[in-house]
Amino acid sequence: MHHMLDYGFRGKIYPINPRQPEIMGIKAYPGLEDIPGTVDYVIHLIGVNNAPDVLTQASHKGAKAMHILAGRAGETGRPEGKELEREILKYARESGIRVLGPNCLGVFCPKSGLAFGFDFPKEPGKVGALIQSGGNATDLIHISSLRGIRFSKVVSYGNALDINEADLLRYFTDDPETEIILSYVEGLRINGREYLELVREAASRKPVVICKGGRTKVGSRMTVSHTASLAGSVNLWETAIRQAGAVPVKNLDELVNMAVAFTFLPPIKGKNVGIVGAGGGRSVLSADEWEENGFNVPPLPRDIREELKRRGSQLWDWIDNPADVSIMIPGDPVTMPDVLSEIVKNPAFDFIAADAEEDPPFGKEPFIQHLTEDMMGYIKISRECQKPLLIIFDERSPGIKDMDSYIHRTRAELRTLLVKEGLGFFPSVSEAAKTIKELINYYQRREEIRH
Amino acid sequence: MHHMLDYGFRGKIYPINPRQPEIMGIKAYPGLEDIPGTVDYVIHLIGVNNAPDVLTQASHKGAKAMHILAGRAGETGRPEGKELEREILKYARESGIRVLGPNCLGVFCPKSGLAFGFDFPKEPGKVGALIQSGGNATDLIHISSLRGIRFSKVVSYGNALDINEADLLRYFTDDPETEIILSYVEGLRINGREYLELVREAASRKPVVICKGGRTKVGSRMTVSHTASLAGSVNLWETAIRQAGAVPVKNLDELVNMAVAFTFLPPIKGKNVGIVGAGGGRSVLSADEWEENGFNVPPLPRDIREELKRRGSQLWDWIDNPADVSIMIPGDPVTMPDVLSEIVKNPAFDFIAADAEEDPPFGKEPFIQHLTEDMMGYIKISRECQKPLLIIFDERSPGIKDMDSYIHRTRAELRTLLVKEGLGFFPSVSEAAKTIKELINYYQRREEIRH
Questions:
Q1: Which of B49, B67, B100 is the last residue of a domain?
Q2: 3-state SS assignment for residue A202
Q3: Over pLDDT 90: what percentage of chain A?
Q4: Which member of A139, A402, A413 has the closest CB to residue B358?
Q5: Does B406 contact chain A (CB < 8 Å)?
Q6: Do B363 and A320 touch (CB under 8 A)?
Q7: Beta bridge mates, A13
Q8: Residue B272: count of CB within 10 angstroms of its CB
Q9: Of the candidates A160, A355, A252, the residue with the CA atom closest to the CA atom of residue B139
Q10: Is A116 on the interface with B (CB under 8 A)?
Q11: Do B372 and B305 belong together in one domain?
Q12: Do A307 and A443 lie in a common domain?
């Protein structure tokens, strides 16, 4: 309730508490039956044991759905937990109320102001997510919102006793507010074939990214005690997800990276990358990582060199792809933004990876100026041209004093600017390369499915 | 000079400038020959063309070494650049002065206050680094200092015209202030067999971690224009480095992670990991990633369960490895630190991976309290026991407002605490698992080499 008020829930809230006349400034009722009129949605925050009783009461108030937060039901593996779930399901079916949970955080819906955690972004967005684990749902929202991702709805659905992956996949497939679907799933309540059919249907209409928890023997052992799920084989799962047209990922970071790619990048269809923005050593390692991930880093085409020469550059024969910024000569008629524009225009490149990271060693003012100018250049290019441009912007581990240093504050300001400008950034070259590889793979499969 | 003054260089500095009587408050001299007495070390910050002249002058002042910062020598690939390098080398040999560079940032030596960049940590440490690229050297120092790494010396050696990887490897092998050697190398000035012999000798005395730039076709094409180096085959290189007893890595992040592992962790010899600290979904994914990297995540041993039962825990049959913190019951006689202590004592586990990351969804005070208590618990355990304990502490991408939020400030404060307490932390489970895999591999190879 704290989160909902904090977040700005726009509907009416009726707290229920037999011992308090008021909760957080809102009139409380001793029981569900004491609330005047009807109730749409019941959030059940107390122990799971009396959920059957509350379901009966809720049905008398016309409720359509109930979210049971508490766990210690089927996932304990104990017979009494399983029995309790059977009973809850029986009451749900009898009352016609759809149950979300038990053992989950419920629904985050920015548009209606429903939130289950703190510090969630207020603006609605186009990413929908069905995330079996509440902790992973919270982490996903926190991590991805820093990268500019905004959500239509996020549903943490826990033990999936009643509302399960099938209901939610169908919902997000049809939801006009959702353009990209993310999912974390530990196990299935429906059979695999039916599930893959639903994934295929969803993926035929919007990008779908699925992170499977419990891929391994031990991971799968854990899902039993976490959400009482059964797990399958890793490779089978990955292959099946790909064949259904969705993107399989292995952890939350990959889930976030794919969300960033689908949100901020146009389709990327080829593997020729133009690399700009870093100094020598960083460029060399960047080229290595792109190539090791199956990309081509073509040499700077002859026509670009000729153009640079024509403009009187002293560097025309030396500059290459990656374009090493550290060799630029002050006063040369050709600047790095000029080189970048040429690369952007040239058909030899399918997309651009721009680095925002090299720490220029010359002190405060040049550091701020260099980083800011680079970023403004990238923003300008991304506005003017259709060629996909992604930015590498390392994450680091600042200590408390670093939080007030110009280095980390400048970086933070530029990240805010990138988010505002709708540019996608990735925390390392390896993560960028892995993500774009999956993105290209996705568009290729989609082409194949269509033809 | 700015960096040296800023950093607190303890020796005497003689700026040379024909047009200024004073530079940054220090008396300047029109030429090298005008400096009274002898000079130990010359830092050549102007264009590379007059380096031969300056070498002659330096030899008259008794200088032992000269660092040439500027590039545009051999690495341009142009005949005049190569000719210039031949000339510099000739003058160096004639004068008996050792030359560092050209095309490099030179020496960072905290003990003597010599620094080539801004914001470097002031305290000396036990990590030595020979980093061919100046940008990579700067990034390495910045990134790893946030993780608690401190350096004996870092040498950026660029084109390696005179002082090369062989000199530096020999130096760091013998240097009593260096206990761990890191290297970024683009190409070799000596032949491969000789190099591997030097690596083998170094690795027989201290851990050696080597990042090779220019592993791929394109990366290698780039090293030619960056430091005029020749590259070899990826797999050959990796295998050879491993056989020599060193650890090959692919990028700066991996270099930093290995430095953290060698600096803060005792030898890890087995693959059985105990996982604590995260909630359900995060635990499941963590278990998956450790297992996919070849680790065992053994189920909670029977004797631990029996002990928990004896102490009256309601969770004795439910809690497992990973130990899911979200299932803990307030008031249960067994707390998560109790479970952690049992795991630490138990021989079923070779090391512990502790998670510091789940965002508890309950608001400010619980967030701060939960994270801080977890970390204090890990610090206490790490002080009391010999079992290796590493911490997973995600990096994120805060925007400018986030820099002042309690979430990111609490995280930053805890990172500072961890560094102070000498605990190693890793930015993700996958990076931790990859790093520890290499660490175990390293100790195994060392055993094999010895027997």
A1: B100
A2: helix
A3: 73
A4: A139
A5: no
A6: no
A7: none
A8: 16
A9: A355
A10: yes
A11: yes
A12: yes
